[in-house]
Amino acid sequence: MHNRVTDILQTKYPLIQAPMNWLTDARLVAAVANAGGLGTFGPNAGRDSLAQEGMQIMEKQIKLAQAQTNGSIAMTLGLNPQGEDQSYAQRVLERSLALGIRFFLVGGEPDEAIYRQVKAVGAILIARSYNPTPDEARRQVELGADLIVATGYDEGGVIPTHGNGTFTTVPRIADAVSIPVLAAGGINDVRGVRAAMALGAEGVFVGSRFLVTQEARTAPVTKQKIMKSTAEDLLLVAPNQRSLSNERMKELARRFKAGDQTTFHQTREMGGVRPAMLHGKLKEGEISVNTGLDLIQTEPTVAELVAELMQDFN
Ligand SMILES: Cc1cc2nc3c(=O)[nH]c(=O)nc-3n(C[C@H](O)[C@H](O)[C@H](O)COP(=O)(O)O)c2cc1C
Predict the structure, then answer these.
(1) Ligand 1 centroid distance, CA of 85 (Å)
(2) Per the structure, how many domains does the chain have?
(3) Same structural domain for residues 251 and 203?
(4) Of 60, 68, 139, 282, which one is least surrounded by beta carbons within 10 A?
(5) Which residues, judged by CB distance below 6 Å to any ligand atom, belong to the binding site of ligand 1?
(6) CDD domains from the xrefs (predicted)?
């Protein structure tokens, strides 16, 4: 069953696997594309440490995924706030285009120059604000976005500081623009997909649930921890960051509550999601996952998960 999203993404299903930094590599991306969704590379895909040269690994990862699938795959362009340097996103864009990537997930405030270049080559631009508002969504459309992702506070990763949940964000954004909107934040099973469609979305953007699939490079011990945890195990450690609890995260949560404005920066100094989620050092860093993690209790293959989520679209 096709709709405007599948037509734009050239996929079987209106489903995007969201970028999750170190954890979304060629194996996962290709598996999603083969299962009928859009597989999306996150920053640092395929890398194991910061000592490795990022651009070369990115190119290898793209080629590796392309060798495993003819399906649609996307690259993430993470934008800095407007007025700041966008040269890293610029380099990622140029190298990805040279390798034939034609789908870009562009995160952050819309940037005229980057949007113009994506559109000039006829590539597809999927815009995701970190703090979605109707005004910003309209601006994204003006600058040429093909699809908008409306992300709610329920999500895993860096969360919107405005605190608005998925249930209220999706219909506001869907009402503000005439291009298709994908819902993001807390979608872990078919009930979430159905709710998203009822709220006016025409597709879904799913991150956390893919962390616990057989093809995901999330450390086995971390997959187990996610499956055993519930929303009560999550701590707010910064205005825009949650983590499953461990001693270091408890300390950060305590400092954040006491007014420390640097706790997000401190999570980055600890290596972000890399130590605990990629390397399985559960005591050493953040474990970022959405507030619906009670629903993540099994480790299916990507194909099984996509089939479950997309059962209404056959
Ligand atoms: C562990 C983890 C890492 C993430 N890293 C990134 C990232 O590097 N860049 C980005 O734009 N979004 C990142 N995200 C956010 C996802 O792209 C997506 O917005 C989110 O996962 C959707 O909500 P869900 O987790 O509830 O499905 C990350 C999310 C998670 C769970």
Answers:
(1) 23
(2) 2
(3) no
(4) 60
(5) 18-21, 23, 42-43, 76, 78, 107, 151, 154-157, 184-187, 205-208, 273, 277, 288-290
(6) NPD_like
